[in-house]
Design goal:
Length: 265
């Protein structure tokens, strides 16, 4: 079964020439200069994405306070897999539109003159979701306009709103025109834009239930699973019963067979 990050990466790669092919060493640039162009109404963390390898570089220590994850442990795949299931389609539509805009609507030299803004919910290590404002700007491209380095900053705005307004903005820098509060599901966002064809494989189980199912498949008892996930054994038993009911099976063995056939395991 595909993970969330697989779908997102498919979208990025579907735009010809969007991602650079070879990494390069980025000259030292003061993050303070980049953050100066951003609006951060709360705790935040920043990073650089190396687009050819789709890896994080220079992740700040703010990840621990916001997501409960050490900055050295945060990866692109881990982040993408932590996006709220109800926000995943919106996130992917935004990224699809961003790629189309940067490659088809502006000159390559102007890719560095736009700040991309939208918000989504992301799961922290304790299982709770944080509402994050995402702001990214391209800082290095290849001569033909492929992404090489992207600076990003994510701010916890959970105290301002519980969930996203589902709008995307392109903020023009250095005199470029801005496009704000775009409805990403509108029919005429950009001329000739065709949304990436996508069918997300869904499951009837929650993220926590899938965690428990995987541990059951490893032969762990309810008590061992409880210790592993730092929850009570009673909670594990309750989740297991819910899984049996959802899968319409009678016991754990049948549940595991069901999950293997469904691609969950």
């Amino acid at each position: 079964m595909k993970e969330s990050h697989d779908y997102v990466i498919d979208i990025w790669k579907s735009h010809n020439g969007y991602l650079g092919k070879q990494s390069l060493q980025l000259e030292q640039k003061k993050y303070a200069e980049l953050i100066a162009n951003l609006f951060c109404p709360g705790p935040y963390f920043y990073y650089v994405i190396d687009s050819p390898t789709l890896t994080f570089e220079g992740v700040s220590e703010g990840t621990k306070a916001i997501l409960g994850i050490e900055n050295t442990d945060l990866t692109v795949n881990l982040y993408l897999d932590s996006i709220h299931p109800e926000d995943l389609d919106f996130f992917m539509r935004c990224e699809d539109l961003v790629a189309y805009f940067l490659k088809n609507c502006i000159a390559p030299e102007n890719m560095v003159n736009y700040k991309i803004c939208y918000s989504i919910r992301v799961r922290a290590s304790n299982g709770q979701y944080k509402h994050l404002l995402l702001q990214t700007t391209t800082i290095k491209t290849s001569p033909d306009g492929s992404l090489l380095k992207v600076f990003g900053c994510q701010t916890d705005i959970s105290h301002l709103a519980a969930e996203s307004n589902r709008r995307l903005s392109f903020i023009g820098l250095n005199g470029q025109a801005s496009l704000v509060n775009l409805d990403v599901y509108a029919d005429n966002v950009f001329d000739n834009y065709v949304p990436h064809s996508l069918i997300i494989q869904t499951t009837q189980f929650t993220h926590r239930e899938i965690e428990i199912i995987k541990l059951l498949g490893m032969g762990l008892s309810s008590k061992q699973i409880a210790q592993n996930l730092n929850i009570s054994a009673e909670t594990v038993v309750s989740h297991r019963k819910n899984c049996l009911r959802k899968a319409e099976v009678k016991n754990t063995a049948e549940l595991l067979v069901h999950c293997v056939k469904s691609g969950i395991l």
